[in-house]
């Protein structure tokens, strides 16, 4: 069975963006060593423009599908990237976006849990949950792995990692990796027993 991985950047205090969807401040600390490590560790999460810049081909290693909410999709769309991950099967989960601006992107407004359960039953590589908080909250029970890139910022307020009801759930630590720019990447797996 395929697994769903929530691979996301956050602040120290658990926000994936500011209250107005600001995330550029987290991009401000990107350096060559960190970007190289991300490309090496999770090449399938590099967007089309980034793939060209670092010389990645069309083949996927870990993921073949990406899910994102409308707010996650919007910055790329505003910059003219209607298909940010053409090497992946792309789903944008949205009630407000009714038609896809690109034939390679499926806009989905139905039951996302049912969608993910169906995707997990298919043959293929993993499924990447790109963001955001509402979508992660809806899919919380379906998430098998969380990879959190904790950025060295405290935001104070913003969009949380998960928008969901209070229900503590235990995950097991699979690994950590720290970088010279202050980012710590932490990988957790859902505890099954």
UniProtKB/TrEMBL annotation:
<dbReference type="InterPro" id="IPR024072">
    <property type="entry name" value="DHFR-like_dom_sf"/>
</dbReference>
<feature type="domain" description="Bacterial bifunctional deaminase-reductase C-terminal">
    <location>
        <begin position="2"/>
        <end position="184"/>
    </location>
</feature>
<dbReference type="InterPro" id="IPR050765">
    <property type="entry name" value="Riboflavin_Biosynth_HTPR"/>
</dbReference>
<dbReference type="GO" id="GO:0008703">
    <property type="term" value="F:5-amino-6-(5-phosphoribosylamino)uracil reductase activity"/>
</dbReference>
<dbReference type="GO" id="GO:0009231">
    <property type="term" value="P:riboflavin biosynthetic process"/>
</dbReference>
<dbReference type="InterPro" id="IPR002734">
    <property type="entry name" value="RibDG_C"/>
</dbReference>
<protein>
    <submittedName>
        <fullName>Dihydrofolate reductase</fullName>
    </submittedName>
</protein>
<dbReference type="Pfam" id="PF01872">
    <property type="entry name" value="RibD_C"/>
</dbReference>
């Amino acid at each position: 069975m395929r697994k769903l991985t929530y691979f996301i950047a956050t602040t120290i205090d658990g926000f994936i963006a500011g209250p107005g969807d600001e995330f550029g401040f987290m991009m401000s600390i990107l350096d060559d060593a960190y970007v190289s490590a991300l490309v090496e560790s999770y090449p399938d999460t590099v967007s089309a423009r980034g793939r060209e810049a670092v010389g990645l081909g069309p083949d996927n290693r870990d993921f073949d599908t990406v899910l994102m909410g409308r707010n996650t999709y919007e910055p790329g769309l505003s910059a003219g990237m209607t298909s940010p991950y053409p090497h992946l099967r792309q789903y944008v989960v949205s009630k407000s976006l009714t038609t896809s601006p690109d034939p390679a992107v499926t806009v989905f407004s139905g039951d996302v849990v049912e969608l993910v359960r169906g995707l997990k039953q298919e043959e293929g590589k993993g499924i990447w949950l790109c963001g955001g908080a509402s979508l992660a909250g809806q899919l919380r029970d379906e998430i098998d792995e969380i990879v959190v890139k904790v950025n060295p910022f405290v935001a104070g307020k913003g969009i949380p990692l998960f928008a969901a009801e209070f229900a503590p759930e235990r995950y097991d630590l699979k690994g950590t990796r720290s970088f010279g720019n202050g980012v710590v990447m932490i990988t957790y797996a859902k505890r099954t027993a």
